[in-house]
Amino acid sequence: MSERITLQVARYRPEKESEVHFESFELPCPKEWVVLDGLNHIKDNVDGTLSFRWSCRMGICGSCGMLVNGEPKLTCATFLAEYAPGPVRVEPLRNFPVIRDLVVEIGDFMQKLARVKPWIVRDAEKPLSDGEYRQTPDELENYKQFSMCINCMLCYSACPIYGLDPHFIGPAAIAIAQRYNLDSRDEGAAERMQILSEHDGIWGCTFVGECTKVCPKHVDPAGAIQRYKLQSAMEWVKAFVLPRAAQ
Amino acid sequence: MTPAFDVVLVGGGGAGLRAAIAIAETAPRLRVAVVSKVYPMRSHTVSAEGGAAGVIASDDSLDEHCYDSISGGDWLGDQDAIEAFVREAPQELLRLEHWGCPWSREPDGRVAVRPFGGMKKMRTWFAADKTGFHMLHTLFQTSLKYSTVVRYDEWVVTKLLVDDAVVHGVVALELSTGKIEAITARAVILCTGGCGRVFPFTTNAAIKTGDGMALAYRAGAPLKDMEFVQYHPTGLPFTGILITEAARAEGGHLLNKDGYRYLQDYALGTPQPKPVLRTMELGPRDRLSQAFMQEVAKGRTINTPYGEVVHLDLRHLGEKLINTKLPFVRELCMKYQNIDPVKELIPVRPVVHYMMGGVHTDINGATPLAGLYAAGEVACVSINGANRLGSNSLPELLVFGARAGRAAAEYATTAGDAGDAVLAQFKDESRRLEHELLQSNGRERIADVRLDMQRTMEESAGIYRSGADLARGAVRLRELQERGRRLHIDDDSRTFNTERVSALELSFMLDVAETIVNSALRREESRGAHQRVDFPARDDQRYLTHSLAERQADGSCRIGYLPVTITRWPPAERVYGEAASHERAHHAAGGPVPTREGV
């Protein structure tokens, strides 16, 4: 028979409570169970009011990010047994307004994502009848890593800059911008540069690197930001040194 | 009453987003809304791994893709729809390439294709083994270009507004606030995906509760071919996480407890050192899942705390190939099963994966209800027949998402306004959501009813079925419907009340479950994924037809039939392995339909 473990879960219902409190649940802890299984066990069998998001349970939909013992984690990919015998603290992601219990408001990211123009920008699209844009495996490799972002918000939760200045466009949005900038089919880097070079763009980042550490998909947003800063500085220098036609 | 939108899409996965973009591009003045119970990039399309079929190789042809799909579907697919699908799939995949989808490439920069189960030629486009993820994010990010597309993120659609057999919009509930709104529209496209969660063991995400199917069914649109439920042969035990068919396409072997490649015993060919298309591990999903059940019966599977399993062996492929071609497989095994496929055998068992059936539509996604369209897994056109081939569902949601989008846009420009009946319906529905579901004080726990439903489905409508089991299942589901009306809901909050959503989802699933069991009970033959132990042969005399499940006034389910469209490929025997090479010769000769032996 499996061991048991205590979960201390953050609870907050805005209609009834003015602040967050913790509630403890003692659960079975089979070795296959992830933190999310524990939460579902509570919801199904103990307290149906516990609210949290989840869907795929295979680390790809990005819904179930929470703080587990203070660290941003995908709860579907975090084994409970690693924390046995507990207690384990489960809280909503840091740096976001809490809607209820473990559910945070991510509307801010959704707007920022759209702002970086996360689509292929080209002066002219070639007709479908001309077939695909050729892209070698090396060219694919150039941006591939940045295309792996699942928008799980762990990086925003880990980012001390976003915590202090919510205007900061943030790690995932910058990594996704870079994903398109580095794509051989794209011509939109200059447009995106303008957006990202604004005061709350990339200059906000002081290269703490927490975003890269917590990313469950090894996207390395910190690397994207550094690369972007360098590129942006070069553009800025070029704008002074070279006539416009040569840029 | 002038509607708020021209077209409302329910669901923001691959089909919904493709439809939205199709409308924004072809009719930019139309007002479009995407209503989704999750943020669109969380949709279940994200989980698709292996790839998307579209003919591009020089040695391939449209006819061959048609034939593989038709025979794979055991002749239940509509051949006019399959021909249109196969013709448009490469264009759609190419369009996605132009939108930035990171398809895997050949050294010269052309899009690469890989082999896939049931496909005779290499025609499966892939983005490593995260094809659905990349397609969904490409579609979602591209959709952000279009400012005419309004999003209702995390809104649950609870009802279709219907006046005199014409659909005029939806009633939806905003999760974060509990606000209930009538979102009126001239046309509605259902793109809510499948309903794997009616079964206990599934690859489907938690959100796959058949919402769109139930919404259509309740509004009077029939559900087609609901008895055809695809089991994927290789899911991880306990979690149901899918190990993609690509693992077998790259050369993985299925072994029983004796380390024996047991598929050779089930008319799927003989073992070869390299993977051979439509042979052994690359046979179709229904046959592989059925072979597993036979192995269980023979006592040749491995017993685990989570039921019987067989082993998927990738060890001989080597670390390098696994890392480049199957990185997600390795990640999933290590993170969720604590197993490294480079060194260890992967325990697998068949898991419910896909619904061939769905809302009955024509080739443009139109349902029999005016103003109602459906595309993607929620719909049944039918191109998948009695068994879908791997890598046909991703191009399906593109081709028919786009078709439904264009058709709905055209319809919306001519449709009339809704009458007052719609307002009354909205008020009734608001009352139900506010009173019945927020102050529900029955005694049944949602999780208990759901678990009993799932057990009932596995026992009655699993891989092998019988008339007696199905009849018992139908009775149990009636009882579960009753229990489902006496739920106890702890949560009376309006703020992000997920328990209320679970209650709505349970009720959708119960309706869908009834259509599955009743359709399966009436189909007295074995075809594709529908295997009846009491009727082991395919019966083209009686059942070369689609089932249509229609809801009756008393809530019961009536089954009718509709002929299958045959264009150029008359029904023939479905054969795999070495015998497959003789298949075409037989088909060309136009011989009589052979009767098929039971498995």
Q: Would you write up a description of this structure?
A:
- The complex is a heterodimer of chains A (247) and B (599).
- Chain A is α+β, with helices and mostly antiparallel strands and 247 residues long.
- Chain A has 2 domains: 3-104, Ubiquitin-like (UB roll), CATH 3.10.20.30; 107-246, Fumarate Reductase Iron-sulfur Protein, Chain B, domain 2, CATH 1.10.1060.
- Chain A is 34% helix and 14% strand.
- Chain A is built from 9 helices and 7 strands, in the order E-E-H-E-E-E-E-E-H-H-H-H-H-H-H-H.
- In chain A, strands 2-1-5-3-4 form a 5-stranded mixed sheet. Chain A has a two-stranded antiparallel sheet with strand order 6-7.
- In chain A, strand 3 and strand 4 (71-74) form a beta hairpin.
- Chain A is elongated, with a radius of gyration of 21 Å.
- In chain A, 46% of the residues are buried.
- Chain B has 16 helices and 22 strands.
- In chain B, strands 1, 2, 6, 7, 8, 9 and 17 form a 7-stranded mixed sheet that branches. In chain B, strands 18-16-10-21-22 form a 5-stranded mixed sheet.
- Chain B is globular, with a radius of gyration of 23 Å.
- The relative contact order of chain B is 0.17.
- Mean pLDDT of chain B is 93; it is low at 583-599.
- Chains A and B meet through helix 1, helix 2 and helix 3 of A and helix 3, helix 4, helix 9 and helix 14 of B.
Low-confidence stretches of chain B: 583-599
What's the CATH first level of the largest domain in chain A?
Answer: Mainly Alpha
Based on CA atoms alone, the radius of gyration of chain B comes out at: 23 Å
Kindly report the greatest chain-chain contact and the residue count on each side: A-B, 63 and 60 residues
Number of strands of chain A: 7
Uncertain parts of chain A: none
Structure class of chain B: alpha/beta
Largest sheet of chain A: 5 strands, mixed
For the report, how would you describe the main beta sheet of chain B? Answer: 7 strands, mixed
Q: What spatial form of chain B do the alpha-carbon principal axes imply?
A: globular
What is the overall silhouette of chain A?
elongated
- Please bin the fraction of helical residues of chain B: 25-40%
